[in-house]
Amino acid sequence: MSETQAQPILEIRDLSVSFPAGRSARFMAVDGVNLSVYPRQTLAVVGESGSGKSVSAMSVLQLIPIPPGRYERGQILWQARPTAEQSEASDATDLLKLSDRQMRKIRGKDIAMIFQEPMTSLNPVYTIGDQILEAILLHQAVGREQAVSIATRALSDVGIADPTARLREYPHQLSGGMRQRVMIAMALACQPRLLLADEPTTALDVTIQAQILELLRHLQNTKDMSVLLITHDLGVVAENADSVAVMYSGRVLEYGSVMSIFQRPLHPYTNELLKSMPVLGRHADRLPTVRDGATAPDDFPPGYDVAPHQVEVSPGEHYGGADAKLHEVEPEHWVLCKATTEETRKKATLPRVTFRREPVGTDA
Ligand SMILES: Nc1ncnc2c1ncn2[C@@H]1O[C@H](COP(=O)(O)OP(=O)(O)OP(=O)(O)O)[C@@H](O)[C@H]1O
């Protein structure tokens, strides 16, 4: 089913989240973000450090510390069983409106989150078994014996050999890759409808990273799960995602199918990002960082004197600014600009940018 026919399982609408900047001022870590995740699809959110990816994802589960954070506006509509027939997500739940108690029922059950650092999710003083069982017993109407069998199965699903023995071990007894798998097993044991994966493989070596992403793809197909994948790695996006949102400075600059974004990037910043793709024999450079909402020119990527949203790309084409909106410039391809000028539309039909992903680090 194409995105246009299906209803999203998760729809973030006009989300804005602020944090303090100095004594009395605040900055928008997330500024009017719109994102949709469709059933069984992977939406990748890319962008440099500090662009608001994690704050967007953590907002879905109300994991932003309030204060200092503040949800300024927006909705996060959740519809666990969307159907093609519904024309409006009218019976969707706004996750931002849920009480702590209501949210605890969803967290870990319908929506699970995994982080770059597994120890964020694992408690060092409890065994792996204690921790997985706790999650299962909390969310599923099963007895202890059945919970053990679900936990064992979850560990073996993520490729952990001898799962019964592993249940008795503590996190420090496992390697980094193994801990990552355990965290994924914990997240998947309750068969969530949506997995929020925040850089789940960045800290791992390339082989384990590939194994885990392959595993997620497999589980996504077999368990009917959607994934919101946050990553810096565009190679990972190309191989794992269906659609991609490019974030910068708290805003989504461009959004569309992986194919459209990679073949016809329209926002100048997306072009910068694509240039950082790994090519034959060269690792991708990590993108420059925007520091804590700062807007000093030094913080912007090479080639920009000012933030991209202030760049006038060519006469008549303004990407961004407070009055810019995401415009659909070709089917299923949105770009942040002030207006869908004829020039912007024409850009969509410019010759294709050739995208070739080569294995990282291989000799020519
Ligand atoms: N608890 C917090 N208190 C204050 N500022 C915060 C907090 N959490 C996030 N921020 C700020 O919000 C902005 C967006 O952060 P976020 O973690 O979403 O970026 P990101 O794109 O996920 O970056 P990274 O790839 O490094 O994780 C940053 O400027 C960050 O410093």
Shape: globular
- The succession of helices and strands, N to C, reads EEEHEEHEHHHHEHEHEEHHEEEEH
Bound molecules: adenosine-5'-triphosphate
**N/C terminus separation:** 39 Å
Average pLDDT score: 76
Please tell me how large the radius of gyration is: 21 Å
Task: Quickly count the helices.
Answer: 11
Helix content: 25-40%
The description of the largest β-sheet is: 8 strands, mixed
Structural class category: alpha/beta
Strand order within the widest beta sheet:
6-7-8-3-9-10-14-13
The tally of strands reads 14
Which residues form runs of ≥5 with pLDDT under 50?
Answer: 279-320, 348-364
- Share in β-strands: 15-25%
Structure description:
It is found in: Cell inner membrane. This is ABC transporter ATP-binding protein. Keywords: ATP-binding, Cell membrane, Membrane, Nucleotide-binding, Transport. GO terms for molecular function: ATP binding. Belongs to the ABC transporter superfamily. The chain contains eleven helices and 14 strands. It has 364 residues and is of the alpha/beta class. The strands form three sheets. Strands 6-7-8-3-9-10-14-13 form an eight-stranded mixed beta sheet, sandwiched between helices. Strand 7 (194-198), helix 7 (206-223) and strand 8 form a beta-alpha-beta unit. Helix 3 (128-139) packs across helix 4 (144-157). The structure holds adenosine-5'-triphosphate. The site of adenosine-5'-triphosphate has 15 residues, from helix 1.
